[in-house]
Amino acid sequence: MDAQTAYRRRWGGLAVLVICLLVIVADNTILNVALRVLSDPELGLGASQAQLAWAINSYTLVFAGLLFTFGVLGDRWGRRRMIVLGLTVFGTASALSAYSQSPEQLILARAVMGFGASMVMPQTLSTVTNVFPPEQRPRAIGIWAGSVGMAMAIGPWAGGLLLENFWWGSIFLINVPFVVLGLALMFFLVPESRDADPGRPDVVGVLLSVPGLVLLIYGIITAGERASLADWDVYGALVGGVLVIALFLVHESRTPFPSLDVRFFRDPRFSVSIATIMVLFFSMSGIIFFLSFYWQSVREFSPFVAGLLVLPAALGQMIMAPLSPTLVRLAGPRVVAAAGVLGVCATFVFFTRLEADTPLPVVIAFFFLQAGSMAVVLTPATDAIMSSVPPGKAGAASAVQNTVRQVATAMGVAVLGAVISFRYRAAIDPALEAAAEDEAARDPDPERLRSAGESIEGTLALARSLGEEGRSLVAPAKEAFMSGLHTAAAVSLCFGLLGLVVVLIWMPREAGRHQPLGTADGGGSGAGGGSGGRDGADGPRRQSCRDGDAR
What we know:
By secondary structure, the protein is an all-alpha fold.
């Protein structure tokens, strides 16, 4: 594809990248609404709580652990090529997940899905950076950011709709036609791009990044599941992950051809934006995850209705993400980001007062505010990250941003989940002790009562098994869960306020300039295909062609 054709088709190419994003990101959330079905021996696979957790975590672990690696490889080998390969793996693994015959097969197939997704995700943002000229990049990145939020909201709704009409495997099989559509359009609308001057491969750096991230994510996830750091494999993974990542950063600061140039962090646009994204995703992810239990377990909505109620959040993302670059031009990134963080903090205050009978319009309004405020922060922060590095290193920068988001999300679910679990058990224990006295007269099973106190779903399952006698546990279970959710929201508020301080003190007042395509510092990887050397030589000519078309 020549440069002028690539430029004319850039918005169509963005639409294809959005399709890829929708499939990858929605699959991260779509499984949550199917957990109850998958645990049913007749309707699902009869998976245990631990197996359900690893059906989610196997995807997250592989996905987050390999994001940086494939971001770097995409810069070197070609971003479109990496997307095509990743979509192929992801689509194949989706079909295997749909027809899994056991929980173990599902866990393995989900891990392969994470492998494919890690190839695709960083290339989408780096391709946007390389296809669009500097004056159009903020708007394109706004659409990219909006599609991420939209996919997160659409996932639960689509999953609930499919589960009400088809068998559980449909939530994975639905990925296949979208993958085929993305692959069919990819070669017509998305140009190849790569770093024109990648230098010598940083094999040691890439090899260090994988175990460092995998160990760290594993430690975070497992600590959240067990609500404890006491087990040797938990603290061993955490300490080992931190040490390996520290060794990776030391190596990157000394090697002449680093995969991640640590000098990027000297630019406040890059470092402050990374810090802001990390704090906000940590504080929001746990709350968003456990609100699905609020809809289904506390308010007893079906998975489809619960997913439908999340759609206003998608609307907030879709409206505010593309609008955010205009707000930045008018008021500056610091003011816009601070306003967005304040909006997010306001929703945390609301969640500390949320009750089981809070009117639905009020809850929906705050969902809209939360998603819109997050989009207001995420779009300029992402744009700042991508504009502060040469376009040829866009894959590495995109991978850093996505990796930080995944680590922060895992930490948020783990830490806030532990907070909710602690508060829940403390509040539900008196009701369970009373139930234990009645149960002991018939069929003493202290282990079953103990496990029932781990979560609201466990308690409600026990209540259903006890029949009429178990109805007395329902109201205390809901009250205990709400108590834990209020505490978690208060913790999230503290971290949100920390993010506000970071923005107000260190976020630059003015938006920096994007580094143009075809610059001498490795940005010659324009939209045209071909070898790295030719890309570098033709970069300035291609940019002038774009400017001519724009006129």
